């Protein structure tokens, strides 16, 4: 199906009345993701983010470790918790991983990490997944260790569209983390619809994988930007939300905002306190400052920047 046909396919619309107190509660303790390049566009993070916000630093192919460590050091110096990505398939081997960890810890005081497979199809070295990174023992002593999750599946791991291999890996990681002192969580890919998130979280719980979930959410952005990232990142079923938006001529030129998604998830959490989603993690696809402003306007005290304290 062509992209235009896909976007204009008829879908049902949904209306949700935002509930500010629920949003404020749900957004409390949110995190956000940056890259060295995008972080360089922010003059002072204290002006836009709450004190102590966890900031993930994405390590994409072609990024130098020097730039990653520099960004980590800057954010640490400004008073933020820093969680750099460790993409298995971008790391040449044990020695390079040990060097990265030593630099992060020695130069930037980092003791948190997000472990994931990484964007390459073919590993550059001996690691192909986050389980192999964990098995090195090099992350022993870290205070927080997060792993990647995909509410709408991961066809790189399960090409048949099932979740068989992913679920096996999740169970392995759950068992591994039972032997560590680190605080652990699953940080997910972004999506645009609540139903797949709820179903996925319930499925994990049913399989005994009760790790806390930090749900990935795309921050405010233009529609064409979201479509580009969604297609490249393999976001599937919840693309229908973008379909509905593309059909509404009055919204085509307005930025997407995640109000509906977060309100629905917040309401579900209120009705089901055991629901596995515990925090929100933002992918600022429309810009870090724009994302931070949106949270401040919708999350009350949860989004108050440090400079406003």
Q: Structural class of the helix and strand makeup? A: alpha/beta
Helix content: 25-40%
Instruction: Count all strands and give the number.
Output: 8
Low-confidence stretches: 1-19
Largest sheet: 8 strands, parallel, barrel
Distance between the termini: 51 Å
Keywords: Oxidoreductase
GO molecular function, one term: oxidoreductase activity
Protein name: Methylenetetrahydrofolate reductase (NADPH)
Folded structure, characterized:
The protein is globular, with a radius of gyration of 19 Å. The protein has one domain (17-308): TIM Barrel (Alpha-Beta Barrel), CATH 3.20.20.220. β1 (31-34), α3 and β2 form a beta-alpha-beta unit. It has helices at 3-8, 20-27, 36-39, 65-77, 94-108, 130-135, 164-177, 194-206, 223-233, 240-247, 259-271, 288-299, and strands spanning 31-34, 54-57, 81-87, 112-116, 144-149, 183-191, 213-218, 277-283. Mean pLDDT is 86; it is low at 1-19. It is built from twelve helices and eight strands. With 309 residues, it is an alpha/beta fold. It has an eight-stranded parallel beta barrel with strand order 1-2-3-4-5-6-7-8, surrounded by four helices. α2 packs across α11 (259-271) and α4 (65-77) runs parallel beside α5. Helices cover 40% and strands 16% of the residues.
Please give the structural blueprint:
Layout: H1 3-8, H2 20-27, E1 31-34, H3 36-39, E2 54-57, H4 65-77, E3 81-87, H5 94-108, E4 112-116, H6 130-135, E5 144-149, H7 164-177, E6 183-191, H8 194-206, E7 213-218, H9 223-233, H10 240-247, H11 259-271, E8 277-283, H12 288-299
Parallel strand pairs: 1-2, 1-8, 2-3, 3-4, 4-5, 5-6, 6-7, 7-8
Helix pairs in contact: 2-11, 4-5
């Amino acid at each position: 199906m062509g992209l235009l046909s896909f976007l204009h396919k008829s879908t049902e619309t949904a209306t949700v009345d935002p509930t500010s107190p629920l949003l404020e509660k749900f957004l409390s303790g949110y995190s956000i993701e940056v890259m060295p390049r995008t972080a360089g566009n922010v003059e002072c993070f204290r002006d836009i983010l709450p004190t102590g916000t966890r900031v993930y630093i994405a390590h994409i192919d072609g990024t130098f470790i020097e730039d990653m460590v520099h960004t980590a050091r800057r954010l640490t110096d400004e008073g933020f918790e820093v969680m750099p990505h460790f993409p298995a398939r971008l790391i040449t081997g044990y020695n390079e991983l040990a060097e990265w960890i030593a630099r992060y810890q020695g130069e930037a005081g980092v003791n948190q990490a997000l472990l994931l497979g990484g964007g390459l199809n073919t590993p550059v070295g001996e690691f192909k997944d986050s389980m192999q990174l964990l098995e090195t023992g090099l992350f022993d002593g870290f205070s927080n260790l997060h792993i990647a999750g995909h509410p709408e599946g991961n066809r790189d791991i399960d090409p048949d569209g099932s979740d068989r291999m992913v679920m096996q890996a999740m169970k392995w990681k759950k068992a591994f983390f039972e032997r560590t002192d680190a605080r652990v969580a699953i940080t997910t890919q972004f999506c645009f619809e609540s139903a797949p998130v709820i179903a996925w979280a319930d499925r994990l719980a049913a399989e005994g994988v009760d790790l806390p979930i930090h749900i990935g959410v795309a921050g405010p952005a233009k529609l064409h930007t979201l479509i580009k990232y969604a297609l490249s990142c393999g976001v599937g079923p919840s693309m229908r939300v973008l379909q509905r938006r593309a059909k509404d001529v009055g919204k085509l030129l307005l930025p997407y905002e995640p109000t509906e998604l977060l309100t629905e998830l917040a309401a579900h959490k209120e009705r089901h306190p055991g629901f596995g989603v515990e925090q929100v993690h933002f992918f600022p696809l429309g810009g870090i400052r724009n994302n931070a402003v949106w949270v401040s306007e919708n999350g009350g005290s949860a989004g108050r920047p440090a400079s406003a304290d």
